[in-house]
Amino acid sequence: MPKTDNINRIIDHKLFSEDDIHNMCVTLGKKLTEDYAGKKPLVVGALKGAIFFLTDLVREMDVEEEIDFMDVSSYGDGFESSGKVKLISDLVTNVKGRDVLIVEDIVDTGLTLKYMKDLLKKRGAKSVKCCVLLNKEANRTTDVKIEYYGSKVGNEFVVGYGLDFMNFFRNLRYIGVLKPEIIKQVNNK
Ligand code: 5GP
Known about the structure:
alpha/beta
């Protein structure tokens, strides 16, 4: 965990506590257990933000599943989507004929998930659905379907539990809102 004075420097307020996050994982895990009963899904984690959520979520799923990861980036180091999605590292697993569940930390414009869904469908996956922890709808520019999500969030920049601030602070146990003045400071540099 980062030191408290460093956290206080950047976090405005706590949005979701460890308990809130745990409860979202339990609820989603139960639903996914029902929906994937009798299937052997391939769970695809979107690096790096989804790693904490994925590890907690799959342990709430009573399903025989395989796990793989993809690194797809649309944000870079900034606070807004660049509008372009880049595949940085690919899956090892062949998705042909598989039921794929993409696990992502947060959906914003929807470009990242749309790119991943389209790519995996093109490769012959039997089904491709997604489960995101946080659903930020304000900036959505795509019609990508979000089959499962933990909670909606407003148009604010959130940090912690995998979500980064300039690649740091992913290891916060809770999710907080970044201070608006920090965004201004970084954008003015
Ligand atoms: P999209 O392609 O849907 O616009 O963006 C999805 C990606 O943008 C997420 O996987 C995440 O990396 C980043 N992102 C979007 N909103 C936030 C946010 O509030 N905080 C952080 N740390 N990353 C975000």
